[in-house]
Specification:
Layout: H1 2-19, H2 24-35, E1 39-53, E2 65-80, E3 83-98, E4 105-120, E5 125-135, E6 140-142, E7 145-151, E8 157-167, E9 173-186, H3 190-194, E10 204-205, E11 211-213, E12 218-235, E13 238-249, E14 258-268, E15 273-283, E16 289-291, E17 301-303, E18 307-319
Antiparallel strand pairs: 1-2, 1-18, 2-3, 3-4, 4-5, 5-8, 6-7, 8-9, 9-12, 10-11, 12-13, 13-14, 14-15, 15-18, 16-17
């Protein structure tokens, strides 16, 4: 009986090797095993979307237009025993031209790098240290007036260092809470710094308008930070990702929470074609937005406002 059982088991094993057939539970176990392997896991995705409209003698009116946007997202994660180190880099850029003789206008521009290292405290809880850097690549203007620059590379640039606890109940969920957080805002453009852009201390002028002291290029804050991340395939070939950052400055107006909320929905058509919807909501009381109440081009005042951006892109996508 034992000999027959041994023959049956051996035959089954050889058949599995020969034909490579696996059951669904076995596939799940292999996935779980792959996710928990020690060492480096690297990869990323690149998306390039294009849209174009051409009008010739079009009686209904309108303008020809062209738009292009791209997104590069990379990750490099390391895991060994109780140590984990997660690194991500997101780079996005987009332009639009409306009218055959019009100049290209920037519609998207970001660099966002995050590095988080953690040491396991309990089963799902880690002691963690997080570093975050955000900025943009090219100058931004107060369109349609392209002579007034309102942002540039490292203007602003955000640097954050946070110490806290990272809760990971599952591989696709992370809740990082840091009661000790240092945040620095850099405005590496003296004209913008003199205007007090992005919360830095503005320049001092005398009664005749003569510059007495340049504005400061940096603003340092100390406070608490919360970062929530979630990713899930909600349906076949439909992926949803969300990231929420909250920061409170202990030193001044701690009740004014800085909010940065990003969402991504990706629809996979085939190996190389996909559609993506991205949204970004920002609220920072230190960033003053021009207010044009009568919509006549005249700025009546400046104040904090909720910023919102949405991008729909259909085009080439490659995952590696």
């Amino acid at each position: 009986m034992k000999r027959k059982l041994a023959i049956i088991l051996t035959t089954t094993f050889l058949c599995q090797l020969t034909f490579g057939q696996t059951t669904e539970p076995e596939k799940h176990l292999r996935t779980v095993s792959a996710d928990t392997i020690n060492g480096w896991k690297k990869g990323g995705v690149i998306n390039i979307g294009l849209s174009q409209t051409s009008l010739t003698n079009w009686a209904a009116g309108g303008q020809s237009s062209f738009a292009a946007n791209g997104l590069l997202s990379l990750f490099a994660n390391y895991k060994k025993s109780s140590l984990s180190w997660d690194n991500t880099l997101d780079v996005g850029y987009g332009v639009m031209q409306q009218g055959e003789d019009a100049t290209f206008l920037k519609t998207d521009d970001k660099i966002d790098m995050v590095s988080k290292i953690g040491m396991k405290a309990t089963k799902n809880l880690y002691y963690a240290l997080l570093f975050n850097f955000k900025t943009q690549m090219a100058p931004g203007y107060n369109y349609p007036n392209d002579s007034v620059k309102i942002s540039d590379f490292l203007a602003p640039g955000y640097f954050m260092l946070a110490i806290g606890m990272d809760y990971k109940p599952k591989d696709n969920i992370s809740v990082f809470l840091a009661p000790l957080t240092a945040k620095m805002t850099m405005v590496n453009d003296q004209n913008l710094a003199n205007a007090g852009a992005f919360g830095v201390e503005k320049a001092v002028y005398d009664t005749a308008g003569v510059l007495i002291q340049n504005g400061k290029k940096t603003l340092v804050e100390f406070g608490g930070y919360l970062r929530f991340q979630y990713k899930k395939e909600i349906m076949k070939n439909i992926l949803f990702q969300t990231k929420l950052d909250l920061f409170s400055n202990y030193l001044k107006d701690p009740q004014n929470i800085v909010v940065n909320w990003e969402n991504l929905i990706s629809f996979k058509v085939n190996k190389f074609i996909s559609a993506t919807i991205t949204t970004n909501l920002i609220y920072d009381d230190k960033i003053k937005i021009a207010i044009d109440k009568n919509n006549d081009g005249i700025v009546e005042a400046k104040g904090p406002r909720t910023q919102f951006k949405e991008i729909l892109s259909i085009g080439f996508s490659y995952k590696f």
